[in-house]
Structure formats: structure tokens, C-alpha cells
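Progress against Task 2.4 (sequence-to-structure conversion) is shown through the following example record, which the project officer requested during the mid-term review.
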Amino acid sequence: MAIPPLARPVHIGKCLAKNRFVIQPMECGDSDLRGGFSQNTRTRYENLFRGGAGMIVMESVTLQYDCRCRRHQLLLDVHDQDNRDQWEDFVREKKRRYPDTLLIVQLNHSGELADESFSRRVCVKPLPGYGGVLLEEDDIAEIIASYAEACRFLAYIGVDGVDLKFCHGYLGAQLLRPYNDRRWKYGGSFENRARFAYEMCERVRYAVPHESFLLGAKVSVYDELPGGQGHAGPDSPIIDPEESVRFCKGLEHRGVSFIIETLGSAGFGWNLMCPNRNAPDNVFRHMTAAKLLRKNLRSETTVICGGLSLLRDGTHNGMTGVDPAHGNLFYYGNTCIERGDFDMIALGRQSYADPALPAKYLSGKTDTINWCRCCPGCGTLLMNQQPTGCVVYNPPYAERYRTLKADKSMADRSS
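C-alpha cells generated for the chain above:
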């Protein structure tokens, strides 16, 4: 019996993923008050590792706790011994128990999306409704240095690689967007706007020269902001992914082994970033964007497609005119990988609903999968600074969601 594409191993740079399932870096806002590993954090990752995916990308980790978007965002501080010890213990345990699972850490800087109620907001060019303290070239140099230092530490403790975040409206995307036409070293021309990302890759590779430590990136091929990433000019509403393709080619030239495709911006609505039943065709936009990258990048560069949770088992996903047998996560995943449209699939909200999906698929137990309903529950928790998980299948998160909705309803009646 032929092995389905999703079950086949794949080389990512010098490493081998045991199958084609990737766990997306999902923020969950459940660290302790100092940004360390809480019991919730540890339990969540234990469930994900036990779930059997070939590669797990840890959530958006901040290196600057004074500039973050989640009150309880996971922190990596190489200058704090307790934080270092927590990371070392966590990685040692996971690599001992799950040596055949690739462990990747996503590093991020919130920039203008930092929450000013407990954090410091910064920006590269003030955006209406956001703004913040204007970053200067010396600030960028310090940020790049902090990334290189963090990667050196992660490689030392046994992490398999990093995912650098150039998407969803965070700092990496803010620098890349044509709207950043400010006259400075990191603005204006494409070469200047890409300089931050390219210098970071070069510095990280210099800090960790061995290629068994993977460099990867999550990239918004386009977003929803006129003048944003993947748009034709500083104020243009016209989507033009040419720069995004050129950017990804530059990344692979500087040692990036994998690209996680994405769309949209967290600051401008989630329908594009995370397709739901109101806009199910956005799933196909993700597939198209992934294929665009696959077509233009070297065969050695692994392209990972996101935005697929809505597909489910082909039912209750808002799609019309599509046979569920030919319109589900596994059919599209296997078919598109077989055709060479992309190399792996990434699970985001679906990993909240059922972290064991890869293992269930690989063992032929798909009838036991808890399918994500793509409801607004987990997103509502996250945006309200609550610990985040599935409100359908996980009772503690369901109770938080009910409490949050009740409190909001009471506040609305009071006003």
C-alpha cells in the first residue's frame, strides 16, 4: 500500500521531518508573570509533542518583555539565569522524550502591535490608530544583536532551529511594507526595507554557523493594509506579491531552509489570516500563495502552507459546490503535496482543537479527530489577554470564554 504524501518524511535543510505535519506557532498567553513556563504552557506542549507532528514551531516568543503584545507572552532572556534554566530544562526534556520531532522556536518583536496598557509601543513609521515611539537605526541594530544572541543560546541547548517572523503586522512586517517609505537605513527602497531581515539572517548564521541549526521564516505574502506587505506601493490598495517572492528568494540566499506561508495582518481582522466560514475561499488564497512561493524558490527550500484549519473533514466549513470527500484537509494536503504545490501543511487553530491529529491520521483513527469549528472563541480569548485554547473541546477554556462573554454583556448593559 502506497504511503500517502502527508505521512512521508521530508528533508528540511540538513534535518529530517518524520512527516509533513507542522504545528503553527500559536500564541496562547499562558506564561507566568515573568514570561516563564507555566504549568499550562508545559502541558500544552506535552500534548503537542505527543500528537506526532513532524515539526513543532513554538509560539511567538518575545526577546523584549518591555515591548510585547500579550501580558503573559513567553519570554526568552539569555541574561536571566532562571529564564535560561527554564528553557534548557524544557528543551532537554522534549528532545529526550521526542528525539525524532523537530523543535523550532519562533522569535518576534511586536513593534506597533505592543499593548500600551502594560508595554511600550514602538514603530518604524506612525500608522493611523497605532503609532508609538519611533525606532532609530541604533535600536534596530540592538534588536538584530538580541536575535543572534538568542539563536546562539537556542542552538546550544539543542533546539533544531528558529522561525523569524516577517508577517501579520509585527515589526518584521512593519519594516517590509512599502508604507515604510521613511528616509532611513531601513526604509524607502525594497533593498532598505528588506535590510533588517537580511542582516538578521546573516548575523544569526554567523552566530550559529552549523547548518544543522535551521533558519526559517514565516512570511505574509500579502496583507490587508493599503501600502502593506505584498502591495504595489506606499499607499496602494493593489495586491502585488512580486516583492514578497523577491524577499523570500533573498532569504533562501542567506540560509533560510523553510518558509511558512501566511496572509493578512493581526491588526486588521482575522478572516484572511485565519479563514472562517464567512470567507471559506480564503483557504484557496493560502494554497495559491504557497504554490507561488514553491514555483519561485529552490527545490531545496521547504514551503509550508498555512490557513487550512477550516477544511476540516470537508463538512461544516462554509464551502459550497465542493464534495466533502474531495474538499477536506487530508485530500487537499495529500493532493497538493503530490502535485508539488507545497511541501508540508501547518496546523494552527486545529492544533488547539486536537493536538493529536497527526498521530490519529497516521494510525488510521481519523474518525476520532476533534475538528476545529473555526468559531471566534480562541481568538476572543487571545485578544482579551486570556490564556488561550479551544473553547469547544477544552472545558477550562470554555469556562473562561463564557465568563468573558458574560462580563462583556453585563458591561454593555451598564453602559
